[in-house]
Design brief:
With 253 residues, the chain is of the alpha/beta class. The protein is built from twelve helices and eight strands. It has helices at residues 16-30, 49-55, 82-87, 98-104, 108-120, 133-137, 141-152, 158-161, 182-199, 202-207, 218-225, 242-252, and strands at residues 5-9, 39-43, 62-65, 92-95, 124-129, 165-168, 210-213, 232-235. The two termini are 13 Å apart. The protein binds 2-phosphoglycolic acid.
């Protein structure tokens, strides 16, 4: 019912040439399945969005941004608006990635404004949530996820929420080589789906895709995807090589 979704977050990596060749290789290697059996999106750095959009031309791979600012325009030096993202061909944007929360210092309140601004401006947000290692050790995982989901989606009505994808990314698993076990991922995803059912309604909660992220590799994708509430993966490091990203796409179908 929920089509698998594979998203590649390139973070602050690639350059002008490698971003284009990576996009072309992914488009070429996945043309037989993307769109029909799996949704795929890539999230390059801002300055390569236009060239990657051109490189993805005629493929069914969607373009996304790693961040943006919630205001529509004005004196916000260094920031990028939702309309600017649309203008260069983006359909998706990440909101509240753990590196934005924990390195840059974004709050739940700011992330909530971004989610709302994205939807209002016609961009599909991927709201990222996940606990720190200390929080997991202190049995705070459910509390942290609940807070991030409730605050991140505050004020959004049912119509708006249907544009949202959620990504559960335990911070201790991001870029560390440590992946959550399939059961840990399933438990967190189930909690999120139950929260969505509680805030909205069961039918809507069944439609929303929940991705897992954190050291996803070709070898662990199929097992994660077998979990009932894991609908896709958000991939960092392994999305920077066409071969490994293509293997993940194959394994997710
Ligand atoms: P990783 O990153 O796959 O390199 O762990 C995932 C992410 O940050 O989205």
């Amino acid at each position: 019912m929920r089509k698998p979704f594979v998203a590649g977050n390139w973070k602050m990596n690639t350059d002008g040439n490698s971003s284009v060749s990576l996009a072309k290789a992914i488009a070429c290697g996945s043309s037989n399945i993307v769109g029909r059996s799996v949704s795929v999106a890539v999230f390059p750095p801002f300055n390569y969005l236009t060239s990657v959009f051109k490189a993805l031309n005629k493929s069914n791979i969607a373009l996304g941004a790693q961040d943006f600012y919630f205001e529509p325009d004005g004196a916000f030096t260094g920031e990028i608006s939702v309309a600017m993202l649309k203008d260069v061909g983006c359909n998706y944007a990440l909101c509240g990635h753990s590196e934005r929360r924990h390195v840059i210092g974004e709050t739940d309140e700011l992330i909530n404004k971004k989610v709302d601004a994205a939807i209002s401006g016609g961009i599909l947000p991927i709201l990222c949530v996940g606990e720190l290692l200390d929080e997991r050790k202190a049995s705070q995982t459910n509390k942290v996820i609940t807070r991030q989901i409730k605050k991140g989606l505050a004020g959004l009505n049912a119509e708006k929420i249907s544009a949202v994808t959620i990504a559960y990314e335990p911070v201790w698993a991001i870029g560390t080589g440590l992946t959550a076990t399939p059961q840990q991922a399933q438990d967190a995803h189930k909690l999120i789906r139950n929260l969505l059912a509680e805030i909205y309604e069961a039918r809507l909660s069944e439609e929303i895709r929940i991705l897992y992220g954190g050291s996803v590799k070709p070898e662990n994708t199929a097992e994660l995807m077998q979990q009932q509430d894991v609908d896709g993966v958000l991939v960092g490091g392994a999305s920077l090589k066409a071969d490994s990203f293509l293997s993940i796409i194959q394994a997710a179908v």
